[in-house]
Automatic annotation (TrEMBL):
<dbReference type="InterPro" id="IPR036390">
    <property type="entry name" value="WH_DNA-bd_sf"/>
</dbReference>
<dbReference type="GO" id="GO:0003677">
    <property type="term" value="F:DNA binding"/>
</dbReference>
<feature type="domain" description="Cyclic nucleotide-binding">
    <location>
        <begin position="19"/>
        <end position="140"/>
    </location>
</feature>
<dbReference type="InterPro" id="IPR012318">
    <property type="entry name" value="HTH_CRP"/>
</dbReference>
<dbReference type="InterPro" id="IPR014710">
    <property type="entry name" value="RmlC-like_jellyroll"/>
</dbReference>
<dbReference type="GO" id="GO:0003700">
    <property type="term" value="F:DNA-binding transcription factor activity"/>
</dbReference>
<feature type="domain" description="HTH crp-type">
    <location>
        <begin position="154"/>
        <end position="224"/>
    </location>
</feature>
<dbReference type="Pfam" id="PF13545">
    <property type="entry name" value="HTH_Crp_2"/>
</dbReference>
<dbReference type="InterPro" id="IPR018490">
    <property type="entry name" value="cNMP-bd_dom_sf"/>
</dbReference>
<dbReference type="Pfam" id="PF00027">
    <property type="entry name" value="cNMP_binding"/>
</dbReference>
<dbReference type="InterPro" id="IPR050397">
    <property type="entry name" value="Env_Response_Regulators"/>
</dbReference>
<protein>
    <submittedName>
        <fullName>Crp/Fnr family transcriptional regulator</fullName>
    </submittedName>
</protein>
<dbReference type="GO" id="GO:0005829">
    <property type="term" value="C:cytosol"/>
</dbReference>
<keyword id="KW-0804">Transcription</keyword>
<dbReference type="InterPro" id="IPR000595">
    <property type="entry name" value="cNMP-bd_dom"/>
</dbReference>
<keyword id="KW-0238">DNA-binding</keyword>
<keyword id="KW-0805">Transcription regulation</keyword>
Amino acid sequence: MPGKAQETSDPKERFSKTMWASMLAPEHLQRVEAEVIERFVPAGGYACRKGDSVDHWMGVVDGFLKMSSISPEGKTITFSCMLAGGWFGEGSLLKTECRKYDVVALRDTRVAYMPRSTFTWLLDNSIPFNRFLLQQLNERLGLFISLVEYDRMLDTDTRVARCIASMFNPYLNPGGGMQLQISQEEIGYISSVSRQRANQALQLLEKKKLLSLDYGGITILDLAGLRSFPAEDSDAISK
């Protein structure tokens, strides 16, 4: 379970990198600020677990989360990663079902939890919030369709490129710039490859001038190039 609820010095900080909060009417945002709680999840800890009842909509205040599941064969399958400003779990809330995945902190992370009652109240009272959710659900559907393609049809280097690019979706991860503090091991997690293989792919992408490798992270030089990086032109290292 995540750590105890914590208060920040300024509750508005929880929403500073969040796209949907800026769309709310002042009275709606005031209620949200009063009812959302924050918890600390240490690296390796669970923000939520597969099979849990879904009682909150969740967002990353600061840190890095991985949405994943374990197959019957014991293989970890990563669906998505969430950075600061990203919110998730709306589909399970809307369907009132148990959670279908684990959400694990890849580093120390502060997570915001919006109660189901607050989420439902926003749906009933805020047209901008509804519009945001429609767009977010559409973006997430597109991401998951792409992940199936990455896993089944693309070579490893292209999969790493596309998975990195997916972390810069303005709806799903709105809070980041072109610099990303992420380790090669974490890139391996989101791409379902080993750290060593992720390193080989990153070296290739740097050679192609799509990104640069920094100490403890990467800087994106050509986001469009990462999104369209083609397997057939990558002179990729074999799987």
